[in-house]
């Protein structure tokens, strides 16, 4: 894949998450990995208007390779996640409900209320707070994402990884839906969590049905 193609794909994903209401203005960043290079949205850009020219390609050590704009201040976070997981794309947003949940005192994870959450890895961790753009935040978030596809960042926002940009965007959207569900359930009463047995049964059923995969009608 050429750098120009990779940069355009990242820009398109950035515009998509902005259009979905997961971020406003310059608050957020998107990246994709291609071999030994990472294309990431530039610092200070408005993601709703992101173009390929607003995306910078760097090496895995963070050295700029292609592009005129300095990479996002969260570059270390992206590189650390790529180093410690199998991620091929990352979406970081300040999605309203995910961020709200991440600001709740004493809450260390988003519990499993709905079976779709199991596809992301189960209970969603809320990574402890660290200053944005810091090496400490990069290490904390990367550690939180080792065993899950998504995480919340205390008093900050949300982050999703995936096997592709489309996958990472879908995971970010599902995370926000789950955070919204938790918020709404909590406003009504005490949310009912799925038990371990119910979660295990759901996983077995999903495997048996190959859930979420299009299939031809059997005649």
TrEMBL record:
Name its GO BP terms in alphabetical order: pentose catabolic process
A single Pfam family, by name? Answer: Aldolase_II
Keyword annotations:
Lyase, Metal-binding
Family annotation (InterPro entries): Aldolase_class_II_sugar_metab, Aldolase_II/adducin_N, Aldolase_II/adducin_N_sf
* Record GO terms (molecular function): aldehyde-lyase activity; metal ion binding
Write out the GO cellular component annotations: cytosol
Tell me the ranges covered by the Class II aldolase/adducin N-terminal domain, including all copies: 8-183
Task: Fetch the Gene3D superfamilies from UniProt.
Answer: Class II aldolase/adducin N-terminal domain
Protein name as it appears in the record: Class II aldolase/adducin family protein
């Amino acid at each position: 894949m050429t750098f120009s193609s990779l940069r355009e794909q990242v820009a398109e994903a950035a515009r998509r998450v902005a259009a979905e209401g997961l971020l406003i203005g310059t608050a957020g960043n998107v990246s994709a990995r291609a071999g030994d290079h990472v294309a990431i949205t530039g610092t200070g850009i408005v993601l709703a208007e992101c173009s390929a020219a607003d995306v910078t390609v760097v090496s895995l050590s963070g050295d700029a390779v292609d592009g005129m704009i300095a990479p996002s201040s969260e570059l270390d976070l992206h590189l650390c996640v790529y180093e410690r997981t199998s991620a091929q794309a990352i979406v970081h947003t300040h999605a309203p409900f995910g961020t709200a949940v991440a600001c709740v005192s004493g809450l260390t994870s988003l519990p499993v209320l709905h079976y779709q959450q199991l596809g992301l890895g189960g209970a969603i961790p809320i990574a402890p707070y660290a200053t944005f753009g810091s090496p400490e935040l990069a290490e904390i978030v990367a550690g939180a994402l080792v065993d899950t596809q998504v995480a919340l960042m205390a008093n900050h926002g949300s982050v999703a990884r995936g096997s592709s940009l489309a996958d990472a965007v879908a995971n970010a959207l599902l995370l926000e839906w789950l955070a919204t569900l938790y918020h709404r359930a909590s406003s009504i009463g005490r949310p009912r969590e799925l038990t371990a047995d119910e979660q295990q049964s759901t996983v077995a059923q999903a495997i048996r049905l190959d859930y979420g995969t299009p299939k031809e009608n059997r005649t």
